[in-house]
Amino acid sequence: MGYPHKPHPQETVVLSKHFGEVEARSYKGWVKRGGYEALKQALTMEPAKITDVVKESGLRGRGGAGFPTGLKWSFMPKEKKKPHYLCVNADESEPGTFKDREIMRWTPHALLEGTAIAAHAIQAEVAYVYIRGEFTEPCAIMEQALGEANAAGVFGKIKIYLHRGAGAYICGEETALMNSIEGKRGNPRIKPPFPAAFGVFGMPTTINNVETLVAVPHILRNGAAWYKGLSLSSPKSTGTKLFSVCGHVQRPGNYEVTMGFPLKDLLYELCGGMPSGRTLKACIPGGSSVPILNREETERCLLDYEGVVEQGSMLGSGGVIVFDDSVDMVYQIMRLARFYAHESCAQCTQCREGTAWTTRILERMLAGQGKPADLDLLLDLSENMTGKTICVLSDSCAAPVVSGIKKFRNEFEAYLAGKKHPVLAA
Amino acid sequence: MSVTAHPAPGIEEYQPVFTGKTLDQLNGILPRYPTKQAALLPALWLVQQARGWISDRNMTEVAEVLGLTPAYVKGVVTFYTMYHQHPVGKHFVQVCTTSPCNVCGAEAVVRALLDATGAGELGATSPDGKWTVIEVECLGACGFATPLLIDDDFIESVTPEKVAALVKRYK
User: Fold this and answer.
1) I need a labelling partner for A327 at 20 to 30 A (CA). Which of A60, A69, A122, A394 fits?
2) Entry pTM
3) Which CATH architecture describes the domain B20-77?
4) Between chains, do A246 and B142 touch, taking CB under 8 Å as contact?
């Protein structure tokens, strides 16, 4: 549902069905809506059987990478020799993305139920839900829900704990998140070893995004075939997905549609189009870390993992940032570069230096002090920031720069020809 | 000239944070993790809740309680942006100005806040000690531009016009 708006007839509401219903936040309210039935069912099942059902459903990770969830679970050791852990990534910090926040605010028990099922499937006795520090309200709601569910004793032997972050985008990277839980700086780790072998506290660990886990109870209750059937295009992209739409649309918010839904319809129909008198200039379809689409690409794009790649970008987290024709692309790309420069953990030279220099070069261009070679310099810098570091933060900074220069080169050239931005020229 | 150090007048003697209720809270958190070190982020939150910021003395205390070194604790404190290493105003305001909010007018909200609170400059505290305003990167509520945090209150859809009334709600 397009919270805070009423659901649109073209939406397929599964995960967001109870958004906006205060009663659904309580344990009683959740049970009244059929909550915890799937968990009861799961606790009677063999762990491997649950993994098989999730594999069969085609569910893929909703945090950004789109890795098949069942396959990820199957990497955990079958024979348990050490403690197993589940980490829930609720460190939602990708600019443009605000779906996990709504899931936790309205349906905290859905996340707890999905978490407990996943923990059972991977034979973990402890699950940590890592919530970003700025999410004060979702964290309080989750804490209340966890207290009620624990009092009702629904989780059996599984223990779920909330762990509050303290302001660091990079902790959404899975190995950085594990370091952060361990009480360390949130530096990503070199892989391999992968988390299923050596995760949090050095033990076999699986990490899943909030939206991925809330889909699991529905899959168990309705069957893998039902979930697989929710696809309008590629058979490799199944189910529904929440898209957070922000920026220049009439009705920003979260919209849940079936995989393969046209981006054009999401923007012009569900979100009511651009503000009056404006036209679409550009769109970032999967959170700020993916390449920018121009208008033509946006209007051709189908929202599934393969469809967005076909247009030269990625589905990512499903955070859709919309820019109308009033937007100064150079300034906004500088703001995105500044974001990555601020959030770099500073371990890798290419990222620490590259994000900072990208920002400085864009700032000097905006101030009217750009040099003719700056565009080539930015592209060269981006090249050296892609595929060369421990994690992909540096690649994420390069994506909007490279795609921005490619698709909106005239705006960059205008700054090199004497244009000045009022804020930076001052 | 005296060589004995005396505390400056008006400066209170250091009071440990981990006593009484706060110590009980920490002891309630420790069993969640297989290592003491893992309780570091929660312990730092407890300090900040008790004192409003985390001083070097506090870091040393946390280190002692968790069996870590003060340098290690400082390394972690400085990594995370939400831990204050200096006192801030009575009300701490964090405004998102990242791209999605930026195109919806976040910078005008910041200017209105600096003006209405009397803080004047980003990161500075107003002369009455009540307000500190900072810009932050993405608060994760991009569809509700411009979002901001005043202390622990998350406020959505702030416009420059709403700022004066908002500031008045906080004494």
Assistant:
1) A394
2) 0.96
3) Orthogonal Bundle (1.10)
4) yes
